[in-house]
Amino acid sequence: MFLTEQFVRRTIALCEFLWEETVKLEFGQRADLADIRRIGIPRALLYYRYGIAWRTFFAELGLEVVLDAPSDRGTLEVGDRLSVDECCLASKLFLGHVAALVDQGVDAVFVPSLMGYGRFDTFCTKFQALPDLAENAFIVAGRRVHVVSFRIDELAGETEETAYLGLAARFGVTRKEARRAYKAAIAAQRDYDDAMAREQEKLVRSISKLPAADRPLTILLAAHPYVSHDPFVGGVVEDALREQGACVLFADEADKARSLKKSYEFSHSIPWIVNRELIGATLLLHEHIDGIVLMSAYPCGPDSMCDDAIERCIKGKPILTLTVDAQAGTAGVETRVESFIDILAYQKKGGYLHA
After folding, report:
1. What is the sign of the dihedral through the CA atoms of 206, 209, 215 and 218?
2. Distance in angstroms (rounded) separating the CA atoms of residues 47 and 145
3. Residue 317, number of CB atoms within 10 A of its CB
């Protein structure tokens, strides 16, 4: 028997009510995290998407927020030992960052569980199971890590607001303090995202005003933010592009609301919100770029499908696909980027055009 739309709405409403009631009970009655003063946030994965919000939230609660150093070869080697072979490069780096925070003596490490904000706004399964992954990886290694978490699953009634408020209650703050911290966190992240989008739009406009002969090659780097903005992963590609004189745009820095809306012109069935935004941004910026670099951390499942779809369906711009793994050398990546820019530059001069 098929579920009616009315039944689904009532079920979601009931879940939201029960979750709100749970949060109400927690204030003043459950403060099991009140003794935590130093909380670590791994500089990996969705830190590059929500890091401003997380840091602001805990700072507003009066905690000392600790970040470890940016990724390097040592981070990956530690994470690789804690991980299994099937984990993606980004997950291995994440475990390396958790280990670095544990070594710094933090009281706890913040590792959220993010399911999604809707049917077509979900996250990869690794983000859903991340708290368990972090705890169990260290137990197997004979170490302990105190994980502090919350869960966002809007389809099950576990909203973003109730997740933040429920976690704040566990630190022993009042409802007013919790709500203030949540609002400050969301506002700070929104302001940061808006500022990045405005800066990139300003850059695009400034390039478009230049005479055609003076315009630099403009390359869109389309990748998850924890790939494109991690200096150990995407930093090599960004540096190589800039060294060749290219102007680099980032798909994840485009306006997220507009990108998400635009993505539905490409597909109505893609479930992952970040991939949707990357696809939408690629469509929005398509006419302003000379080429696209699709970059993925091996072996990312969502990227393996979405990047292939971009290559097959978004026409008119040359595309370079890069899959980054745990190999130590960067020469191969640099050579491919250099060749890509050479081809684009030659093509721009008319080298591949025929009457």
Report:
1. positive
2. 18
3. 16
Annotated domain spans of the chain: 5-189, 210-348
- Structure confidence at residue 172 (pLDDT): 94
Q: What is the architecture, at CATH level 2, of domain 210-348?
A: 3-Layer(aba) Sandwich (3.40)
Q: What is the pLDDT of residues 185-222, one digit of tens each?
A: 999 999 999 999 999 999 999 999 999 889 999 999 99
Half-sphere exposure of residue 97: CA atoms within 13 angstroms, side-chain side: 27
Q: What is the Cα–Cα distance from 3 to 8, expressed in whole angstroms?
A: 7
Cα distances (angstroms) measured from residue 211 to each of 104, 131, 242: 52, 52, 20
Kindly tell me the sign of the dihedral angle through the C-alpha atoms of 75, 78, 81, 83: negative
pTM value is 0.88
| Whole-number average pLDDT of the chain | 90
Distance CA 77, CA 278 (A): 29
Rg (CA), the chain: 22
